[in-house]
Amino acid sequence: MRKIGLLGGMSWESTATYYKLINEGIRQSLGGLSSADILMRSLDFQTVVALQKADRWADAARLLGDAAQGLEAAGADCILICTNTMHLVADQVAASCDVPLIHIIGETAKTITGAGYRRPLLLATRYTMENGFYAEHMRRYGLDVVIPNEADRMICHNAIFDELCQGVVSDAAHQALIDMTARGRDQGADCVILGCTELGLSVDAGCLPLPCFDSTHIHARAAVDFALAVPNQAAMLHFVTDGAYI
After folding, report:
1. 3-state DSSP call for residue 121?
2. Which H or E element spans position 106?
3. Which of 52, 135, 159, 197 is the most buried (most CB within 10 A)?
4. Backbone angles phi, psi at 126, to 5 degrees
């Protein structure tokens, strides 16, 4: 089994989900008391958020790159940045290491295209929805990303930072995400991406009016496949209810 290096803490609420999903995946694959060989560096999210708010992405890239190098030096065979937003600096982090970085946007895009969808609605932080890096990466896979309107972007962003990252799951945010997905469907979206690793704490495939792709689940599954050296990840999709893949 290859060692998985998790670059987490952004927020730790979703990093805990990564740890659970990866270990569940290893146990399901190997049985018994098997669990994942994981190295984790959990950053202080307050520091990362301050860099985001100040638009200091170069400094954020150095922070994550140094942390990734530490994981590699400790023996990690791959790196996962356990957040969508910080994939804005994924190229810089990947360049700082000799081990592969498993890219959450790329893995999500491959899963969506493999399922036959082409126009996903993106629900995420404001940085992820507005910066353009996510949609640009998705275009490499032939996907045309639908972005919510300005009011919905702010509601989604605030639900993530003010509630979900702090362990609060409210009925209001839950309903708002459902309503956003319905409006995205009306804009022509054929599926929805939970493009923030905390969003799955509030909504899932069973409650959304579009087929749902949870990037956290997809990313964690990719880590399991890497650790077990599964050669064809496209064949490893797990179908759940309402046409959603995790």
Report:
1. strand
2. helix 104-114
3. 197
4. -60, -40
Which tens digit of pLDDT belongs to each residue from 143-190?
999 999 999 999 999 999 999 999 999 999 999 999 999 999 999 999
Catalytic residue among 83, 111, 181, 216: 83
Amino acid making up residue 98: D
Q: What is the DSSP letter of 74?
A: T
CA distance 109 to 120: 9
Complete DSSP assignment for 38-70: EEEEE--HHHHHHHHHTT-HHHHHHHHHHHHHH
196 counts as catalytic = yes
Q: Are 111 and 218 in contact (CB under 8 A)?
A: yes
Residues 6+ apart with CB under 8 A from 172: none
Q: Is the omega angle on the peptide bond into residue 34 within 30 degrees of 0, that is, cis?
A: no
The one-letter amino acid code at 93 reads V
The structure tokens listed for 130 are 């507005």
Query: Residue 242: pLDDT band by 50, 70, 90 thresholds?
Result: very low
| CA–CA dist 99, 110 (Å, integer) | 21
Q: Which of 78, 156, 196, 212 is catalytic?
A: 196
Averaged pLDDT for residues 108-116: 97
Q: How many CB atoms lie within 10 A of CB 16?
A: 14
The 10 Å Cβ neighbour count of residue 118 is 13
Give which of 149, 154, 124, 155 is closest to 137, Cα–Cα.
124
Q: Please give the Cα distance from 163 to 109 (Å, whole number).
A: 27
Helix ranges restricted to H, the chain = 12-30, 45-53, 57-73, 90-95, 104-114, 126-131, 133-139, 150-158, 171-186, 215-227
